[in-house]
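question for whoever is on the cluster today: can someone run the full assembly for these? four chains, 444 residues total. i dont have access anymore since they changed the login thing
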Amino acid sequence: MMKKILIVEDDTAIAELERDYLELNGFECSIAERGTKGLEAALENDYDLILLDIMLPGMDGFEVCSKLREKKQTPVIFLSAKSDDIDKIRGLGLGADDYMTKPFSPNELVARVKAHISRYERLSGQDEIINFGKVSINTDARRVFIDGKEAPFTAKEYDLLLYLVKNKGKTVPKEVLFDKIWGFEAIGDISTVTVHIQRIRDKLGDENRIQTVWGVGYRFTM
Amino acid sequence: MMKKILIVEDDTAIAELERDYLELNGFECSIAERGTKGLEAALENDYDLILLDIMLPGMDGFEVCSKLREKKQTPVIFLSAKSDDIDKIRGLGLGADDYMTKPFSPNELVARVKAHISRYERLSGQDEIINFGKVSINTDARRVFIDGKEAPFTAKEYDLLLYLVKNKGKTVPKEVLFDKIWGFEAIGDISTVTVHIQRIRDKLGDENRIQTVWGVGYRFTM
DNA sequence: CCCTATTTTATATGATTTGTCAAGGAATCG
DNA sequence: CGATTCCTTGACAAATCATATAAAATAGGG
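^ ran it for u. tokens below:
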């Protein structure tokens, strides 16, 4: 999933420079040129990180950060031309995550952005989500969404689907599926598996990617 | 509450210097001189932050950090004499929170330590008050208020609700709830979980957000 | 030591899921 | 092309699970 970054910066040249470097590294960027616009954008969207200039028209970076923090914990990196500002950031206890003084090296910027995003994900325990087509599976919540709407999967159906998805591309014999989902020593008919597969295919509808491998089992293809 | 810091550093002179400065600023410090000892200490105690030297006898700082991260998310600041190490830290994706090169100014050290501790507290949501809808939970007092009025939760009910709230969005199997609330080795029927859930739902009334996940457990949704 | 509040166990009931079966359809092979 | 084997589909019955309620056991306070 592509990470989204908000650049709040009134100097267009600098903003575009930052954007170019970040996009080269696989990030998706939006630019806001005024503090107020930046705050609005940050509150409305779920950015993964915000690059925040301090001197801004409308509302300065300090105020943007402090207002943002009332609602959200999106990581913020402050950018400033004046090294004096650094002390101010520390002093204000704004919940800034980092700060850099201009001019900065693009590599340094990208490295810090990456570091902060990965740290934030680690600490905030973000959910693991598997996507294919219009389907997303939230493995922590054990929920399946198709085109944004939740599809009600039962326990066995969910386990079975997840196993196939996690082994995507591989053909899984029905006997293996039975062992894995129903347990090693479970007794019962193999046809149980096929019936469940059928029910899963129904629920996935157009997004069904479970192929039958004749005489063997099933394969989930991406 | 005094914040506790672990210093893992084999050079006694440096370790004591760090300790002195941090204690002057109101921190409580422990020192470990070997990587293995440091890891043990970090796992056994709940430090608020760890200062980790890279070159250590026994087990180097990289390994300590990576082993620690399997269990805990305590903030780590790496210290190194060699600036080469910085690139290595970035490259390894160890979940380091910061790094400083020796020699460093004591004020810089203290400032960074403070910044990281406050960020960690902010992100890890050690909130004293948790709110959802008309419900607020005061975790210090272990009290639950609905629409401003206190709802009398018993000990087990409170623990159970808090666990679900802290894992909001995730489906928690009943067995896990039983382990977490009643203790690992507790014997007893899983149905005691369901009875307690029922009572909590009763007390939450309209504000109940505990969903049943059939065949698995429960999920608290925001 | 007794009384009360809390927690656990037990049971009944209703809802949902799951497994089985049988009929029909599709793929495979000679 | 026909026979055979395997897969799909739908229906139904059995098993499982969740909830409500009540009763029994336990712990805590005076």
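summary bc i know u wont read the tokens: Chain B touches chain A at residues 69, 73, 90, 93, 95, 97, 111, 115, 118-120, 122-124, 169-171, 213-216, 219 (CB under 8 Å). Residues 172 and 218 of chain B are 5 Å apart (CA to CA).
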